[in-house]
Amino acid sequence: MFSDGNPKSEIMLIGEAPGANEDQEGLPFVGRAGILLDKMLAAINLDRKKVYISNIVNYRPPENRRPSDQEIKRYLPFITRHIEIIKPKIIVLLGSTAMNALIGDEFVISKMRGKWIEKKFGNFKTSVIITFHPAFLMRQPAQKKMAWIDLKMIREKKNKLNI
Ligand code: URA
């Protein structure tokens, strides 16, 4: 299924698509990017058992390429319904594929990260924040300081919402 965590979670994280390790295990973020994601979560006292993790596209695109617009469009009803079922109080979009798929193609992540957005998915409205994808942070470690700002915002919101 490529989703993981407690379906009663108040926090939902959404990535791009499974990679090779995820494909083998049938779980999201279990490879190198997942190890960094776990560390990011631990930095704000969260672990993956307390959050719900999914992806925009639920299969591994050939050669690990970015999902095509057509693939994203095909999966959009599934992730939207998924959000409606989980009803998270906070959604964290990891990277530009998740941001463009769910917020809009016109946005760029450098301008959109680190801001709270109120957004409706189907018939469910919630708070969304965008941050860098852990795989991007592994390639661009200098951006980790920006991700840390986003993580602290998530921690603050989580405390405010008492979750
Ligand atoms: N990258 C993603 O976007 N999702 C995964 O599940 C693993 C790596």
Give your account of this protein's structure.
The protein has 163 residues and is an alpha/beta fold. It has a single domain (4-160), classed as Uracil-DNA glycosylase-like domain (Uracil-DNA Glycosylase, subunit E, 3-Layer(aba) Sandwich). The protein is built from seven helices and six strands. A six-stranded mixed beta sheet has the order 1-3-2-4-6-5. The longest helix is centred in the middle third of the chain and has 18 residues, at 69-86. The radius of gyration is 14 Å and the shape is globular. The mean pLDDT is 95. Bound molecules: uracil.
Going by CATH, the architecture would be: 3-Layer(aba) Sandwich
Q: Mean of residue pLDDT? A: 95
As a percent range, the share of helical residues equals 40-55%
Bound molecules: uracil
N/C terminus separation: 26 Å
What structural category do the secondary elements indicate? alpha/beta
Topology as a string of helices (H) and strands (E) = EEHHEHEHHEEHH
| CATH topology tier name | Uracil-DNA Glycosylase, subunit E
Strand content: 15-25%
Top-tier CATH class: Alpha Beta
Tell me how many strands there are.
6
Total helices: the number is: 7
Shape: globular
Which key terms come to mind for this protein?
163 residues, alpha/beta, Uracil-DNA Glycosylase, subunit E, 7 helices, globular
Quick recap:
The chain has 163 residues and is of the alpha/beta class. The chain has helices at 20-25, 32-43, 69-86, 96-102, 109-112, 134-139, 144-160, and strands at residues 4-5, 11-15, 52-55, 90-94, 116-121, 124-131.
